[in-house]
Predict the 3D structure of the following.
Amino acid sequence: MTVSRRSLLLGLAVLGLYALHQDFWFRDVARPLVFGFLPIGLFYHVVLCLAITGLMWVLVRYAWPVALERAVEDAPPSDASSSVPGDRS
Amino acid sequence: MIPTLVVVAYLGVVLYIGIFAFRRPSGGGTGAEDYFLAGRSLGQTVFLLSLFGTNMTAFTILGSAGHAFSNGIVTFGLMASASALIIPVSLFLVGPRLWALGKLHGFMTPVQMFRDRWECGHIGTAIFALLAILLVPYIIIAVMGGGTALNAISGGLVPYWLGGGVVALVVMSYVFFGGMRGTALVNTFQTVLFLSFGAVAIILISGRIGGFSAAMESLLASETTAPLLTRERMPPRLFFSYMFIPLSTIVFPHISIFCLTAKKMGQFKKTVIWYPMCILAIWLPCVFLGVLANAMTDVPEIAAKLEARGALALLDPSAGAAAVAELQRIAAGDDVILRMLDHYAPVWLAGILGAGILAAVMASDSQVLALSTMFTEDVFAYYGGTQRFGERVQVLTGRLFVVLVTAVAYVIALRAPTSIFNIATQYAFSGFSAMLPIVLAALFWRGSTKWGALAVTLWTAGTVIAVAVFQAVVAPAATPIPVWTVGGLELITRTPGGTDVLGFMPVVPMTLISGLLMLVVSAVTRKPSDATITRYFLP
């Protein structure tokens, strides 16, 4: 799979979770109470958090900016001062 | 008395950690980078826990439980699961790139990067001014939370003004002495404490009330409380709006500056993966307990709140703003979790749990330090202070600034008894979300310009002021008041809790128009030199 295609798929996955967050299907219902006390709408968002964790793992595993990391490691130590130049406009 | 003593002991430990960090700088340095960024040397565990703790405030425990008490389970979807998605994604996209550029070019603040990236000076100062002004309410929240928490934990023994003062003084002391290293170590300790808080509180209260099922069934059986277990009272557009609030996180100076403290870029990996779980661990118990509080009518303070809420619902629409405000004040749930612990927990455990709450309250230390870092780097150093007086004076200036900011925040906190939650969302969060296009454009768009950044800054400042003035001029009522209607369409509505624009919170149009301004203004203005752009677009 090409890098751009993988990025597209991962981007869509993030948008998919974004859409799933809007859960209008549980908007008006409290039952069933999962485990006897957790309203379904709340349980749904707990499961969503677990799914997000999984997606974050996939992002880190397959879309980490490796080239950027190498560029920093290979760079000579910074001699930049804290006063950064600018044209004062 | 015992809970108060436990909390005092906790404050002593926190102070010790901060001062210990001051005496034993593991990086060995004494310069600005060591004080403000811990020498860019934070390890994996401290980085993860401290970054998470930095983003937790009084609002996380007290505000979330209070919001859930009034609005129900919707609070979790509004704030927790929305943040669980948006914050790690923004950390993943922005954090490593920000860290890499900071490491390569020596930046200590985002404004330094903006100045260099867009070859500008005074526009950077304008961005600094706005970020600094937006950050102050966040610091005020902590002082207010400290006052509320200590007052409730001590059973009224410590008055609000003294509680807020003690918390402000402790935070100021370890930030003053320990700088970023001390702040990060304290935050790590605090994060462990308040992550444990939720589980302990849940187990304890469950045992005392004989399980949660009966309480939940009793809430479902009542017409007034059953809707709290759904989100039917929350309009879909308002629910959608809340997804824009966590966009503010990566723009908060204390978060973006904290991104520069990691020793290695790889430290973002575990932070990104574990962030949603940390949110789950802290928010789920708080929201659940906040909702559950509605069934605890045997706690007198909670019963009074429920009574005030009922009176608010039956209030005549013509009732004055003062009557509405007074009932809203009594019904506010910022302290429900403390009242529950006070009633159900053994005194010694209430003290430990109270310390857990204070841990979250005191996570404002990073904001104080960030403001000081920005002032000394973006103003003092930029306008020649370090060149003239040296780096020692720069660090001293930063420390004095910490004292000044804390004192100002304390005075304001004493005079602004508004709900913690409202202040945070309406002003600071919305403003920072609207500034996100600046960060994204600087890092990801070669064609962005300083004029685009200025347009976004002015737009954000203007809209934050406009919303504040509007809400000051148009008093809230018990029901929403349409203020500007065109052809039957309600454009702007004053709601009991804030303002709606076409049914959305102001943060939505503010952020979308910011993005549009960045695109349009950058497209028609001169780009920075190729040499500058090349330095920013690494592989």
Summary: Helices of chain A lie at 3-20, 40-62, 66-74. Chain A touches chain B through 53 residues (CB under 8 Å). The first strand of chain A starts at residue 33 and ends at 34.
